[in-house]
Amino acid sequence: MDCQPTICGNSVGVLNIKLSDYGASLGPRVTGEEIKNLVLQELAKDPTLVINFDFTGLRSISSGFAFELFGQLSRIMGKRFFEVVKLKISETDDPELAKTIVREAISRGADIVRKD
Q1: Residues 6+ apart with CB under 8 A from 31
Q2: Sign of CA pseudo-dihedral 23, 85, 1, 72
Q3: What does DSSP say about strands 85-88 and 25-26: parallel, antiparallel, or unpaired?
Q4: pLDDT of 16-70, one tens digit each?
Q5: pLDDT band at 7; cut points 50, 70, 90
Q6: Distance of CA 56 to the CA centre of its chain
Q7: Which of 1, 28, 71, 84 could form a disulfide with 67 if both were Cys (CB 3.0 to 4.6 A apart)?
Q8: Across 8-14, average pLDDT
Q9: What is the DSSP secondary structure assignment for residue 4, as one 8-state letter?
């Protein structure tokens, strides 16, 4: 598996993404889209990957970023998203807020699927 500094699997079948490597405060949609595209590239190479998103060290995450990453991934992957994506949110400055933002982003992604 090819590894970039911020996205690298450290065991077979697992892709670990430490979001704070992209910044302590994640706001831009373009950053979410960049990470989403990296994940999709890796899944194309190995569809059996488990994706671990680590929120450790994040101070904040915007709804736009979360929608581009988690909402769009859930829309593209469908039910499989919930089988292979794991979130480590407990180590953020405000884990409840991060959970709410991610939950809303996934819900928005599901709404788009229902409307299609």
Answers
A1: 22, 23, 65, 68
A2: negative
A3: unpaired
A4: 999 999 999 999 899 999 999 999 999 999 999 999 999 999 999 999 999 999 9
A5: very low
A6: 13
A7: 71
A8: 66
A9: B
Helix (H, G, I), strand (E, B) or coil at 77: helix
**Strand ranges for 5-44 from DSSP E:** 7-11, 14-18, 25-26
DSSP annotation of 94 reads: S
- The domain segmentation of the chain, as residue ranges, is 21-115
- Identity of the residue numbered 38: L
Tokens coding 60: 């904040």
Angstrom distance (rounded) from CA 95 to CA 93: 6
Provide the Cα torsion 6, 103, 95, 29; round to 10°. Answer: 40
Chain centroid to Cα 74, Å, comes to 9
Q: Which residue has the tokens 């480590």?
A: 88
What mean pLDDT comes out for the span 60-88? 94
